[in-house]
Amino acid sequence: MAAGIACKEALAVRNILSDLGFPQNEPTRIGVGNAGAILAGEKPGCNYKGLRHVNCKLHLVRDHVQNNRVKLHKVSGKENHADILTKLLALNKFAQH
């Protein structure tokens, strides 16, 4: 679950900014391209069989979402710039990015 890695990175940056005298009062927004990952990260009762292998990262994300340190939001396929690194793109889409 990439949101778990992004959550760790966001918390590290938040801690550095806080140490430098810039406390973060709002949750850090993390863009996620998968609605299922958002649901799993936000809903405490959401335990699917297929999520067993991401349990630790999932609990990390849930904990920080519930404590209002991070907020997950949906990124549509058109706006997801990481897609150019993970998917084949048509020439016109490649030129767009």
Describe this structure in words.
With 97 residues, the chain is mostly helical. It has helices spanning 2-19, 35-42, 55-66, 83-86, 91-96; strands at residues 28-32, 70-74. 16% of the residues are buried. The mean pLDDT is 78.
How much β-strand is present in the residues?
5-15%
- Fraction of residues in helices? 40-55%
Structural class by helix and strand composition: mainly alpha
Largest sheet: 2 strands, parallel
The end-to-end span amounts to 24 Å
Please report the number of helical segments.
5
Task: Give a count of the beta strands, DSSP E runs of length 2 or more.
Answer: 2
Rg to the nearest angstrom?
A: 15 Å
Low-confidence stretches: none
Q: What's the arrangement of strands in the largest beta sheet?
A: 1-2
* Envelope shape: globular
Overall mean pLDDT stands at 78
Order of helices and strands: HEHHEHH
